[in-house]
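Box 3.1 A note on notation
Throughout this textbook, protein chains are presented in two layers. The first layer is the amino acid sequence; the second is a token string describing backbone geometry. Keep the layers aligned when reading.
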Amino acid sequence: MTDLELRTLGKSKVKVTSLGLGTVPLSGFNTDVSYHEFEATILAGYSAGIRYFDCAPMYGFGKSEHYLGHALRTNGLRQNVVVSTKVGRVLKPASRTKKLETVYGIEWIDPLPFLDTYDYTYDGVMRSFEDSQQRLGLDHIDILLVHDVGRAWHGDQSEFYWDQLRASGYKALDELRSSGAVSAIGLGVNETDSVVGVAREFPIDCSLIAGRYTLLNHAPLEGDFDELLERNVSVIAGGIFNSGILATGVGGAKATYDYGKVPAEIVEKVRAIESVCTEYSVSLPAAAMQFVYAHPAVATLVMGAKSAVEVDQNVKAINENIPSAFWDALKQAKLLPPNAPLPAAG
């Protein structure tokens, strides 16, 4: 087992390890995954010291929750781990539900026989939470995140769903936290603006933000992360490889950037970062992970994995020794902004 640092989420009492294990790749994202493979990956993460596991109704349309809860329960791990899931979607029978058109067009392989519908109202949040409890088989959920509320996902419909959340969804979240049914409340989104906006309206503890702060994306340094720090809202950083390019590098046969084709300017930037990595004998994934974790607003990195091998790679990457000269070189090459927090010298 590897010792992973613990950090507290905002004003809550929830503590998460520096690495969390996300279940998107284990839920049928681009490849079929059996329960045996799912369980083996969860156990590998636990053996490596990971004590935080993230899932959502959307992932495999209930499969991630169903599988994760069973794996934790049958292996006697529940009391030792933190679990997060999400609200904002209610699953309904696939045979009687219209399929949603989504930004990323995810096609789950062998999902459970349900489809998702959006609902950020009081009733929708409560139903989603109670359904998740039953799929997970848990009477308490540590972290509850409002999933994909904002313009990045909903586009022109975003204000409609914002209004639902403001009108009654916040009330449901407040009741769940106040009653002890959940310990921490936040968002699970692909944008930073919505997190800041909600934090100004409602006291959240944290937010899972995917792909917005990475070696390639530095926009949160322009003020958003400073405000979240001031408000004591912890960032759960996801998508830190920008869906692949920062894991594989430009030579990866299936490299993608935010689930699409890699733009030419991104290829050029990654190639420049790889050159510095080669000079200092640093692996690109380790640089990507440690850069994000160095920001004081970030409490943990949620890393997807679909095998014990990938779990091991992630654990080794966050513990890889990186010389401070490497980070200085990235700044000198203007590949990182001057105000970017850097990892402390090992």
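The first helix runs from residue 35 to 47. The chain has one domain: 6-332.
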